[in-house]
Design a protein that fits this description.
Elements (H helix, E strand, L loop, with lengths): L8 E12 L2 E13 L3 E6 L6 H8 L7 E6 L2 E2 L5 H11 E5 L10 H6 L9 H14 L15 H13 L5 E5 L7 H17 L3 E5 L11 E6 L2 E7 L15
Parallel strand pairs: 3-8, 3-9, 6-7, 7-8
Antiparallel strand pairs: 1-2, 1-4, 4-5, 9-10
Helix pairs in contact: 4-5, 5-6
């Protein structure tokens, strides 16, 4: 494992409640946590434990009811909605269970499309997209459309899209739950490799036990509080790009 660097995400006394009619439900209850680069941090817990809410708050997608979030030196609570959008665009990549691919775009176009909203020169977008697809083992499938790809390949396209802009923070919410055993392992390995090879801060939320085998740190959350926080010693799983196309 790489030497642990200073925290890129700091959460302090985070609380989050949701109101439905007259009922208020507290989902997070005073969570304090530092998350570091060069690591894959996995947040686990039962349904309703607050893990996806914590991920959303750490990434600036959701504001806490109380507490403070700092990411890459920015106090997210000080940013308005427009500045939060700019922060996420510049620094964050997102991977979700549902892939979120456009049916009418090829794999290469899927990866290149978001780069037009970042500060990536027009002439380099296609090169960056090719590089990202090669990194996830899909260089040979750049011209294929989503209907021509397997579930595992679609998820790897989504990962390529997330890493093409070289984000410092990468967030993954249940990235393997819809995948079979082999593809789930490929994605888990990729996330680990991205953290180490690209010096990224990778934060995953999942029920999937396969991800534990590739995590550097596993945080258990129950009833809105952290119940355990374990740092694991992992073997070197190989360099980024070692995942072969099926």
């Amino acid at each position: 494992m790489n030497t642990r660097a200073g925290a890129t995400i700091e959460l302090r006394d985070i609380e989050r409640s949701f109101v439905s009619g007259l009922i208020t439900t507290r989902v997070l209850n005073g969570v304090t946590l530092d998350i570091h680069p060069n690591e894959m941090t996995l947040i686990v817990g039962p349904s309703g434990s607050g893990k996806s809410t914590l991920l959303a708050i750490a990434s600036g997608l959701l504001r806490p009811s109380a507490g403070r979030v700092r990411a890459i030196g920015k106090n997210l609570g000080d940013l308005d909605a427009g500045d939060l959008d700019k922060f996420r665009l510049a620094h964050c990549g997102f991977i979700f269970q549902g892939f979120n691919l456009f049916a009418s775009l090829t794999a290469l176009e899927q990866v290149a499309y978001p780069l037009q909203f970042s500060k990536v020169a027009h002439e380099t977008r296609k090169d960056r997209a090719h590089e990202a697809l090669a990194a996830v083992g899909l260089a040979a499938k750049a011209a294929l459309y989503p209907l021509e790809l397997s579930g595992g390949e679609k998820q790897r396209v989504a990962i390529a899209r997330a890493i093409a802009k070289e984000p410092r923070l990468l967030f993954a919410d249940e990235p393997t739950s819809a995948l079979d055993k082999d593809n789930g392992v490929k994605v888990a390995r990729l996330l680990h490799e991205i953290a180490h090879a690209r010096h990224a801060t990778v934060v995953c939320v999942s029920h999937d036990q396969r991800l534990i085998d590739y995590a550097d740190r596993v945080i258990q959350i129950e009833d809105g509080v952290i119940s355990s926080d374990e740092r694991l010693s992992r073997p070197n799983h190989g360099a980024l790009g070692a995942v072969a196309a099926p």
